[in-house]
User: What shape does this take?
Amino acid sequence: MKVVAFFQLKEIRFAISDTDLAAMRDEMPDVEIVQVDDEASLAREIADAEAFVGWHFPRAAFGAARRLRWIQTALAGVEDVLFPELVESGVILTNGTGLHSTSIPEHTLALVFALARNLHQAARLQAEHRWGRFEVIMHAGGIREISGSRLAILGAGPIGAALARRAQALGMSVRVLRRRPGVAVEGAEAVVGPGALHELLGWADFVVLALPLTPETAGLIDASAIEAMRSSAILINIARGEIVDDAALVDALRRGRIAGAGLDAFREEPLPPESPYWELGNVIITPHVSGYAVDYFPRLIELFRDNLRRWTGGRPLRNVVDKRLGYVVA
Assistant: This one.
């Protein structure tokens, strides 16, 4: 069995270590793992490969992958991989679901606390060497407490579920939106379906987007959704930029229609210097780092290694994506 490994995504590059490669070869001697570092080499090596592991499988290489049966992507979001040829094929797609279920909820709560306590305004005053106590207290609707506040989580995958448990432990009232509202979420006082979106948005003090990007979720947070939110509410996006209508959100933030936003994902990345988000004083921008963890790569390799064992042993794989829905169905 031949596996091609290709870890290149925008500015991110990674390679499986020699130690990990040797361990997998010792454990599974019938498996050949070939690492490549450019798309030309990928197109050449994938021709006789049975499996692929990496950040992203380029659509252009799919036609040459005549023996391909399994793609393991390191990412949780798979929208870039779900091109029609793959969806219609018998190739199994597995993803990195679960690898971010600590780092992203913690990053989300960091944004919630920073925006609730106006730490972003305090940082601006620090850069200006100004005290400005009341500027911090009154900025963007004023400082508020987390305990007793209302959190709406849109999405109930491992990230949304982990966030619900943590938020409930902090004294927040949590409600979750999911495709199947009949399935309970630990830490949530209520679980609602997509039809209750605007009602949920009107209830919440904080709204967190933890949804996969699918045709159903693209543009979900549009002008009408933002209009349904409280004027004191804060929006946190740690999902995908395409879920939000940028023009509508920028307009709402400029007008004070909502109090603020914490944004880690954007439609265009890196975020262009001319983006109006940079100039908004009620926004915290982080450069798509919510999923980063010091031990992320070791955990990723262990997930791949476990799935490789399962593949060679004829057992079911972990994190199989429903290619029609665009995510792993728990």
In short: Residues 153 and 268 are 24 Å apart (CA to CA). The first strand starts at residue 2 and ends at 6. The two ends are 29 Å apart (CA to CA).
